[in-house]
Amino acid sequence: YFIQSNLSPEIMIFGVQLLSTLIIGLFMTKIFSTYSYSLMIFYKVWFSVPPVTEYLGQFSKAYKDYMKKKPRNGEPREPLDTFTIPKDSALVVRQNKIISYTQISLLPHGEDIDMTILLSVSSCLIYLVTELLVFLGYCPASDLHLSYIWSVVVLVFCAKFLGYMLKVYVQLGGGERSLVGLSTFLFIVFALFVSMADRRFIDFGVEEGYNDFVNELVKFANTTNLIKSRSDLNIPSTKAFKGVLIIISGLIGALLTFPSFRFGALNSKLLHSAGKTGPITDAKPSPETENSDIPPEAEANNEAPASTLRDRLVLLLVHFNLVSPLLVVLCWCKPLVQEHIQSQADISERTFCLLRVGFIATIMLVRVFSVKLYLQAHLDSAQLYLKQLKQEVGRVEHKTVQQKIAFTFQYSSVIVLQILTPAFIILQMCLLLLSLQNTPDITTPSTSNILSGVSEVLPEFIAPADGDHMNMIQGVRVVLTKSFMSGVLSYFVWWMVSVMSAVTLFSTAYHHVSENA
User: Fold this and answer.
1) Which of 144, 253, 139, 297 is nearest to 503 (CA)?
2) How far is CA 264 from CA 45, 81, 319, 360, in A?
3) Which of 45, 44, 63 is nearest to 54 (CA)?
4) Secondary structure element (H or E) that encloses residue 96, with its range
5) DSSP codes joined into one string, 199-248
6) CA-CA distance, 270 to 282, in Å (whole number)?
7) Buried b / exposed e along 193-202 (16+ C-beta atoms within 10 A)
8) What local confidence, expressed as pLDDT, does residue 297 receive?
9) Is 215:483 a contact under the CB 8 Å cutoff?
10) Based on CB atoms within 10 Å of each CB, which residue in 242, 315, 453, 500 is the most buried?
11) What is the Cα–Cα distance from 142 to 208, expressed in whole angstroms?
12) What is the reported pTM?
């Protein structure tokens, strides 16, 4: 009925697209009720179990003396609150595999991982179905599709988590708060230099898009008799609009600082482990100590030999994740990449834009599918902490050791989200750019065309007599031109990739030098 009837494009949202959205939503929910998305990431990942107090007490003379004392008059023995152990003790921490969702449910953000993956995968499926409907001719390309709404929902959800993590770091105070302020200032300065760059060298189409936005806004206002002349509209200048983009760029840089810094630290750990002795993940507990809280000392050196092929693949993946964002940053450089590739391959600018967006989406997908490797590298830091502890002199409280190992496992859910959320944001923006490339330009219609279809879509008691509300709804799509949206999205995609690349490279170099030292 919705396909064959002559209703306005806006009512088509409630037709085939809504039906496909409901089917995809029910399908993904059914999968979620049977299989956990977070369990797919955490499945068979090794993590260190915090040692019990009795085991750590074996290395403390104070604890042994305390246990030798017998309680008076049969009174229960009071637990010893704290004691210290030598740092160079032969500590061995048992490792277990994550095999059930019950273990993941102990994590603070386990449900957020499921929701993030559910929304992102559903949005991608709905985008594919919508593009298929457009290709088959069931939905015009100029319609307002539900895939846009789903992409915006994913963007808001991921940005909300990044904002929550930024708030937590700011509340911690100390170095974290200073790093947030410093990164925000530096990225604002960097965005200021980018806005002043020569358009012959790097151009996102922001100025042309904003001019088209202003022209369409004035045309729409004149068509609907909202203004009498252009001077009646207080439209910000191009410099003011760039100033808003610079401020937003600084905030985005602050949001991506800690996830990118953590990603660089994990890259450094993978480079260090694969380049020297192989990953610690190959160390497995023996069957005798699988269910024991106090493993024998013989397990301390039970490490499998490094796999040369695996190490090479890990190094290749790490270097790809480090170098590929730099290539994306250069893709907007006109004389260096864009004009050279267009002339050599003899392709149009539209084809180059499609290839560029596809390359960015591929990089983000590789990062998403490699999250398990980075998760294991983070969990291996508990074993690296014990190795580093044995090389130091002095004593350490037993609670410090337990808290450090427990925190490594508890923080793993945050690590996963810090890798997934920026990748999903850029991926959704790439999908929006692909949709805009396939969408024809929409011009400002006349008043009769704007008001047509109101009576056939809405009843008389719902539709306003003057049609002002419908004018506004129709006008939003006309004012937000294709060039304006493409320019803004291209800029923010380039900016996010640039921020992530710069901070990741700095963090990788910093941690790599410190580890070698």
Assistant:
1) 253
2) 21, 38, 11, 19
3) 63
4) strand 95-97
5) TTTB--SHHHHHHHHHHHHHHHHHHTTS-SSGGGS-PPPHHHHHHHHHHH
6) 13
7) ebbeeeeeeb
8) 35
9) no
10) 500
11) 21
12) 0.82
Distance CA 65, CA 457 (A): 85
Gyration radius of the chain over CA positions? 29
CA dihedral for 29, 33, 34, 40, sign (positive or negative): positive
Q: Which residue's structure tokens are 């279809």? A: 453
Is 277 in contact with 305 (CB distance < 8 Å)?
no
CB-CB contact of 93 with 21 (8 Å): no
Please enumerate in sequence order all residues whose Cβ is within 8 A of that of 224, keeping only pairs 6 or more positions apart, or say none. 447, 450, 468, 471, 475
Question: Which amino acid belongs to residue 340?
Answer: H
Cα 298 from Cα 302, distance rounded (Å): 7
Q: How many CB atoms lie within 10 A of CB 287?
A: 7
Q: What are the phi and psi torsion angles at 202 (to 5°)?
A: -145, 130
CB atoms within 10 A of CB 374: 24
Is residue 374 within 8 A of residue 266, CB to CB? The reply is: yes
Could you give the angle at which helices 238-275 and 371-379 cross, rounded to 10 degrees? Answer: 60
Q: Per-10-residue mean pLDDT for the chain, 517 residues long?
A: 43 58 72 73 87 85 78 68 84 85 81 86 85 75 73 91 90 82 91 86 85 80 63 76 92 93 91 60 40 39 55 87 90 82 82 88 91 91 87 85 89 92 93 79 47 38 43 63 86 93 91 78
Find how far residue 331's CA is from the centre of its chain: 21
- Closest Cα to residue 385, out of 310, 276, 280? 280
Q: Which two tokens stand for residue 52?
A: 């019990």
